[in-house]
Amino acid sequence: MKNEIVRNIFKEYYEKYFNPKENEVGNIKLREFALVPFDSPDTMIRHLSFPTFKDFKQYIVKNIPLHLYYSTAYYKVPEARDMDEKGWLGADLVFDIDVDHIPTECKKEHDTWHCLDCGMHGKGMPPERCPRCGSARIDREVWVCNKCLRVAIDETMRLIEEFICDDLGIKRNDIKVYFSGHRGFHIHVEDERTKKLDQDARREIVDYIKGIGVKVELLNPLPKMSEHGWRGTIARGIYEFILTLRDNEDLNAFTPREMEHLISKRNILVKALEEGSIEVKLPKSILTKLVKEVISKKSVNIDERVTTDIKRLIRFPESLHGKTGLKVTKVDLSTLTDFDPFSDASWLTSSIKLKVTESIPKIELGNVKIDVTPGDIIVLPASVALYIAMKGKGEVIEVL
Fold first, then answer.
1. Considering the entire predicted model, what is its pTM?
2. 283 vs 110: CA distance, rounded Å
3. Domain 4-100+146-208+302-343 has CATH 3.40.50.10320
4. Which of 148, 188, 309, 350 is the most buried (most CB within 10 A)?
């Protein structure tokens, strides 16, 4: 249970500062809403619906949420408790970039895992199964630092520019980006053409963005760099690989004979890819490895469950995230690269006196470098202190 000061912080926010725009979500009468009450963090109240935006806000003020959600789907009867009785009408197309799923190098500095069965532990991304006992019961402690956020921003920009806009043909004006309040970004596509897509169609979009199902045999002869979609992307990726062949670090997958072949064909490959006027074929084994290498670098690591689920609950804009205290914040594409959640997603401008109760890794949050030990009493920017408190690593003593 969070302490009373933290509860009052959430209460003050929802009573005085929670002011999302009505058109931010749209069609409120057709949406399902859900929340986790602040005072009952193990309970989710869902199948809520509201006739007006005013009714919704009044309910939230009276029932302070730890987490607040709404459905990406539109329903005839959103309050129906049986999902089949809701009457599905369509759903927004939503993408989730969650750095938790991306193996960043900095995870070795601040993330830990341990096996709940044998106690083995380690740092960084957790294994699917414990190396010692084979158990899948792996517990994790996850932090998000500035380096993690930079990766999430880069992935979000590539998703929007290279896939959603260029390949899917969605206009930038029909895209909304929100900081999720925790580990990444939600990208909402508001295009009428996508609302009726079923799960299978959304799965096709996910597979395309992840580069799943690319047929190598259709890439021989090599495609032109000017082509659209994965054909052009793969051609450009192979071109980059060939240009840096001698000092490329990703050569372990190739046999000495394959390397010799690539080096001997280097000039003609570069010319073919640059000009597109001649056809060049590569042995299937080499091309397969090149395509795999390009896809691993050019695909985007999205959470497929969010995109394929046509009845998904997602965080409500401007709500506070119950694991961080940060706000689910709309971010303009023009300023996304400069986004800092500890300033741009915080409504508190004050400082907080905090008692550190558990070990915290040395980590940089916003412009604050954290290097503390349990028992320390420190004063931090409110957003950073609240983040630590919501993770159960500190106790708020006073809002200054």
1. 0.93
2. 43
3. no
4. 148
- Chosen CATH of 348-399 out of 1.10.10, 3.40.5, 3.30.360, 3.30.70: 3.40.5
Q: DSSP states of 342-384 as a string? A: HHHT----SEEEEEE-S----EEETTEEE---TT-EEEEEHHH
Instruction: List, for residues 85-101, the tens digit of each pLDDT value.
Output: 999 999 999 999 999 88
When pLDDT is cut at 50, 70 and 90, the band that residue 2 belongs to is low
Rounded Cα distance, 127 and 120, in Å: 11
List the Cα angle 303/326/370 in 5-degree steps: 100
Q: Are 77 and 32 in contact (CB under 8 A)?
A: no
Supply the DSSP string of 8-70, one letter for each residue: HHHHHIIIII----GGGT--GGG--EEEEETT-TT--EEEE--SSHHHHHHHHHHS-EEEEEE
How many whole angstroms separate alpha carbon 216 and alpha carbon 213? 9
Exposure on the CB side of residue 74, measured as CA atoms within 13 A: 17
H/E element, 315: strand 313-315
